[in-house]
């Protein structure tokens, strides 16, 4: 257990046996950012009828090059009558293409005099018509289970007239802070104390990853107080997240409390930053288990650990592949570095250029320099015992979760 473990082994231990949470029904108006528990099938063709892609004139393409009488005017939202032979229809974007017409010519190409319009000679059949069912056909799969409902997906549901969907329950998370030296913003600082930067940072990350925060507390700096708080948190949450208290100091009580109450699956990882990170399980209500992730107290270590472990765990609990899989990309290093026995996660800014993607490392990679995370686009993943030179291809964890 004291041997340093790689990230892949830790992730396997963390996700072992995790099942997606139960589903419930919710109105689409309140479903933004949530994850579908069941696939949704289309009820309607989209578009529901052939319609014009622009303002212009609808006609038969065989009548091109002629003066045609304008037999009707079709605005979006109004029904169209069948097109009289040898005529055209004034039509506007989104308007229903009348039966008998097989093309639309844009108004800029047409000369109109009174109720007559001169059509250009080169109009192909089907021009400027959006055919019925071009986007979706009734009965087809609209959205799969595991889809996160962001802007376009919500619009897709609305386009079908769907008002309710089956969603995964959001994972309930207890977020705990350890250490008597940690003080909440707004309180006075005593000598040796610092403000709690981890709590708001992790709260925002967890919410972005789809969690519901049900408990946010400070853990007493005592073995008994730590055990009591962890036990209570496990009764309320699917996941208990703590910061600090997982190293080897005399005041680090979290690891011992976890071992006393539940199971310690992993401790001390071969990563930098973030070596002192504990993963395990705590007994929860109804005889189940709550997952436990003990992040380091240093804010950058906590930030990195959240992306490496909390995001995939949220994805597994939500049955959401897009969250469960870390978004990786390949870039060219704009820096030189070397690593020892721990895999390094370096904060980098990405430059997208015609020559490719370049990753530029922030100068100070110390685990206490949280400012480097503000403008970081990615974490450059540098394997153990590696030497990277400028221009080398590297893998980056893209800090993107939509």
From TrEMBL:
<dbReference type="InterPro" id="IPR005110">
    <property type="entry name" value="MoeA_linker/N"/>
</dbReference>
<dbReference type="GO" id="GO:0046872">
    <property type="term" value="F:metal ion binding"/>
</dbReference>
<dbReference type="Pfam" id="PF03454">
    <property type="entry name" value="MoeA_C"/>
</dbReference>
<dbReference type="Pfam" id="PF03453">
    <property type="entry name" value="MoeA_N"/>
</dbReference>
<dbReference type="InterPro" id="IPR001453">
    <property type="entry name" value="MoaB/Mog_dom"/>
</dbReference>
<comment type="pathway">
    <text>Cofactor biosynthesis; molybdopterin biosynthesis.</text>
</comment>
<dbReference type="GO" id="GO:0005829">
    <property type="term" value="C:cytosol"/>
</dbReference>
<dbReference type="GO" id="GO:0006777">
    <property type="term" value="P:Mo-molybdopterin cofactor biosynthetic process"/>
</dbReference>
<protein>
    <recommendedName>
        <fullName>Molybdopterin molybdenumtransferase</fullName>
        <ecNumber>2.10.1.1</ecNumber>
    </recommendedName>
</protein>
<dbReference type="InterPro" id="IPR036688">
    <property type="entry name" value="MoeA_C_domain_IV_sf"/>
</dbReference>
<dbReference type="InterPro" id="IPR008284">
    <property type="entry name" value="MoCF_biosynth_CS"/>
</dbReference>
<keyword id="KW-0460">Magnesium</keyword>
<keyword id="KW-0479">Metal-binding</keyword>
<comment type="function">
    <text>Catalyzes the insertion of molybdate into adenylated molybdopterin with the concomitant release of AMP.</text>
</comment>
<comment type="similarity">
    <text>Belongs to the MoeA family.</text>
</comment>
<keyword id="KW-0500">Molybdenum</keyword>
<dbReference type="GO" id="GO:0061599">
    <property type="term" value="F:molybdopterin molybdotransferase activity"/>
</dbReference>
<feature type="domain" description="MoaB/Mog">
    <location>
        <begin position="174"/>
        <end position="316"/>
    </location>
</feature>
<dbReference type="InterPro" id="IPR036425">
    <property type="entry name" value="MoaB/Mog-like_dom_sf"/>
</dbReference>
<dbReference type="InterPro" id="IPR005111">
    <property type="entry name" value="MoeA_C_domain_IV"/>
</dbReference>
<keyword id="KW-0501">Molybdenum cofactor biosynthesis</keyword>
<dbReference type="InterPro" id="IPR036135">
    <property type="entry name" value="MoeA_linker/N_sf"/>
</dbReference>
<dbReference type="InterPro" id="IPR038987">
    <property type="entry name" value="MoeA-like"/>
</dbReference>
<dbReference type="Pfam" id="PF00994">
    <property type="entry name" value="MoCF_biosynth"/>
</dbReference>
<keyword id="KW-0808">Transferase</keyword>
